[in-house]
Amino acid sequence: MGGHSLASVEMGDNGIPGDRSWALRDNERGGFKVGKRVAAVMGLSANLVDEPTQNELSAEVMITLANGNQVSSKSQDIDNILSGALGVSVSLSPLVPKDQLDYYRRRPPDPNADVQASLREVFARTDDEPLPDLRGFPQELFEYESPPGTYFDAFELLVVTQQSLASLAAHNASSRFDVRRFRPNIVLDADQSGYPEETWVGKLGRIGDAVIEFVMPCPRCVMTTHGFADLPKDAKIMRSLVQANDGNLGVYAKVKHPGAIRVGDRLELT
Length: 270
Hints:
CATH superfamily of the largest domain: PK beta-barrel domain-like
Helix content: 10-25%
CATH architecture of the largest domain: Beta Barrel
Number of strands: 13
């Protein structure tokens, strides 16, 4: 769902508390990748009512629908309301313990499925464009929908610089490379042009009281092309990403040392 800004946050071992603490399970196809298929998800937003705790990782959230109506995650009718708003059958699912592996396990692949075609659909690549290099992803993602115990695509943090967005805008002035399309956890203003965050891969960085490890560039998927709010559907977003930067934008990161971070804190690479 759509994100919102925080002035400060106490970064935990799993990133920002509350981030992806709920997921929508696709009752028709299985799995949690509803947003990649249903653009309307991006027109919804969710705000925590209470802060998560160790005993309640999926604390209550208030979800605002595209029509402005609000509904609590505790509502007995939440699944029907969200299914009606999105036009597909979904269930709102809290996090479950990471030892419940079957809950996170991917469905067995269809032996008749065209894997290449499926990947091109997810990553919005045309037939003449290369598919992303997935070798940097955790191996468990080839068996599970997400790292068990989480709903992250791969890692707990995504970092993007303003310079990367500006580089894409310079490559294609007709599209809007709005930060909302790319859903980063941390946005930085760097002192170099191009795609500076990719030069940090393999390094540690301190932001405020927290230390993070930059792991790998983030290969972008079809969600970046979705239309929502005042942003139009735009396939040229992905064409520009592929042409300008191999389909990547931002870098995945892991928390090495939890701590508070605030707007205005500087990144110190180590």
